[in-house]
Amino acid sequence: MVFAVGCGDTSSTDAGNGCSTDANCGTGKVCHPVLKECISSCTGASDCPGSEKTCATFAGVAATTAAPGFCQCSTDALCNTAVAGNICSTATKQCTAKCSATSCPTGYTCNATSGQCAGGATTDAGTDAGVDAGMTVDAGLTCNSTQLQPSTCPNGDYCSVINTCENTPMPTCGNFPAGSPPLTWTSASTGPVIFALAQSLALNTNATFCGATNPVRGKVLVRAYDQGGRLDAETMQPSLSYYRTNGTAIALDATAIQNYATQASGNYAEFEVNFCAPTGTTSLTVGLSFANGNGACATIN
Fold first, then answer.
1. Number of Cβ atoms within 10 Å of the Cβ of 209
2. Which pLDDT does position 65 carry in this prediction?
3. Do 227 and 272 form a contact (C-beta atoms < 8 A)?
4. Which of 50, 53, 21, 52 is nearest to 38 (CA)?
5. How crowded is the C-beta side of 80, counted as CA atoms within 13 Å?
6. What residue spans of the chain are helical by DSSP H?
7. pLDDT of 26
8. pTM for this one?
9. What is the mean pLDDT of the chain?
10. Which of 39, 40, 70, 75 is nearest to 57 (CA)?
11. CA 45 – CA 230 distance, rounded (Å)
12. Cβ distance 10 to 37 under 8 Å?
């Protein structure tokens, strides 16, 4: 059941653009966790260009004034429309030229075939645009961001790209009603932890997939861990609910899920969830939560 429903510029005023936290950056800037440069922040899609029209934290959580994000791309096609030959970097979530042997961020290597910078920790990292941006670091707890989440961090945390344990942020979208389980979740809860949720397919008309009633299709990419090993397969996972913008929750089933991949005997999984919406839909905010798990938000544009 499928459910209906320039940002990368830098500033010479930011101490040479090098940064490790948002605090190193000037007003209206955040610290990109991979580039380690101060880039323009955003709090909504209206702040972003068409080629990078998703405004979110690096973890895919909806950006707010209190926790600003940065403009992110979702497809090579949109990047190529803005600048011929550009691609959407999976490492940085920015539109960029195809990589060369010397152009990738530290810890990455260039795949000459795809033009993407491969390696690093972005596959498993759940950090936002910077260490600050609404995150709470568990003082003194270090981890290895090249390992599967949560590395050596306690339940409810994730390992950031700077190898520190950070608290998984509470959702900021209005999809979760006051007092609902995702908002009362704590690290002592027993459900799987969604540490990253982000758009993976921009909204587009696809009546073949979605049908004529709600022909606009979009997808989000979910990354989650469960220290009880219950993410072994999409049909075996604890129940996963979709919270709509009106606060109502619907149980997802495997027909909405694609590209399910699991590792570490069901302790880690990443997969995509499809959503279908009425004609004319230009933005869709979704909330997801496993049973007894945290809540996470993403906006599909």
1. 12
2. 81
3. no
4. 21
5. 6
6. 76-82, 181-184, 207-210
7. 84
8. 0.60
9. 82
10. 70
11. 35
12. yes
Closest-CA residue to 58 (of 137, 128, 156)? 128
In this structure, which amino acid lies at residue 145? S
Stretch (H or E) spanning 26: none
**To 5 degrees, how large is the angle CA 225–CA 228–CA 231?**
50
Asked if residue 169 lies in contact with residue 133, where contact means CB atoms within 8 angstroms, the answer is no
pLDDT of 200 over the 60 cut: yes
pLDDT above 50 (res 261): yes
In whole angstroms, what separates CA 6 from the centre of its chain? 20
Query: How would residue 4 be classed by pLDDT, with cut points 50, 70 and 90?
Result: low
Please say if the pLDDT value at position 129 is more than 70: no
CATH of segment(s) 170-300: 2.60.40
Q: Answer yes or no: are the C-beta atoms of 241 and 251 closer than 8 Å.
A: yes
CA geometry: angle 31, 32, 37, nearest 5 deg: 70
Sign, Cα dihedral of 204, 220, 301, 274:
positive
Q: Answer whether 128's CB lies under 8 Å from 169's CB.
A: yes
Residue 76 main-chain phi, psi, to 5 deg: -65, -35
* Domain boundary assignment for the chain: 170-300
Average pLDDT over residues 143-150: 89
The β-bridge partners of 295 are: 289
Distance, C-alpha 93 to centroid of its chain: 10
Task: Write out the two tokens for 151.
Answer: 């590395």
